[in-house]
Amino acid sequence: MLIDATMSRQNFHHVVAALDAHVPGGRLDQALNEYRLERCTEAERINHWRCADLTARLANQQGDPVLLARGFQALEQQRRLFPGLSPIPGDILDRVNQYQRYLCLHSELGDYRLRIGAEESSLQLFRRPGFEGYDGQALALLYSTCRLLERGSPLRIRRVTLRAHHGERDRRDLEALLGVPVSSGEEQDGVVFSNAHLLQPSATAGSLDVLGQRERQLRRMQPGLGWSDSVRGLLPTVVGLPGKPLALCASLLAVSERTLQRRVEAEGQDFRSLLSTSRRQLALTLMPWRELTTEQLAVRLGYRQTAQFYRAFRDWFGESPGRKRVALYG
């Protein structure tokens, strides 16, 4: 049952702020009261089903099915949608779910899955059971994702796909709202982008400084965030860059290498194991891109010699990269 679905208090306040941008205060306050959702509640978790239903009802009353997305647009124009957010490098797209959750923008409506194709790839939104019919909330999440990915990333969004069917006029309105081409009636909601960024780790000193600032900001926002979690998030970007991954991660987190090792070990983890796991996952993520040669993949994963990569790959999967690719993708 949906009655147990909850969302964070901060996320709830973001939704209310977005609705405030387009719903008259009296009507919003009345609706909040009817759904027993206080504007300044102290509860740590808010009933998600009631919040989603509230948003859908207000959108219907206002005659605007994309009400929440327009509200997020208003917050973005007021520079309130991503307060203090630094750019996100395009090569850590698998962390979009995590970053949106930390930044109080993830609606908990569903999760993104990264799908890499031959020339283009996508972040596809898979809704959780019980939230299949909430198209307005899905669109709002796609809007925030587009804005998030645009900030300082080499990523180039090609189009947004929507499960809901829209006429030509509505589709043009949605394209104006999202800032990219839109196709409706698709199998899955998602953001489609070019593969051109996949071999472009953020190698400049300036972009690395931004990456470190962002990660430290997230640690301040989420005191319970483990050091191992931060390392897992940084490794997909720093592997393949000049320098040792441990030294790069320690520098970005503003601690010494030894301190970082101790803190990771205190959480029952080991930096070398985290590095190996990150390389393994990144290898699997990038392998569907057929234009990527084994030699290019080895360099992207930070191996100086292709033979080193072959040995590591056999340790991970018990076979060569070529055989693994054929077994997985034909």
UniProtKB/TrEMBL annotation:
Pfam families: Arabinose_bd (PF12625), HTH_18 (PF12833). Keywords: DNA-binding, Transcription, Transcription regulation. The keyword DNA-binding applies. GO terms for molecular function: DNA-binding transcription factor activity; transcription cis-regulatory region binding. One of its GO terms (cellular component) is cytosol. The keyword DNA-binding applies. Residues 229-327 form the HTH araC/xylS-type domain. This is AraC family transcriptional regulator. It comes from Alcanivorax dieselolei (strain DSM 16502 / CGMCC 1.3690 / MCCC 1A00001 / B-5) (Alloalcanivorax dieselolei).
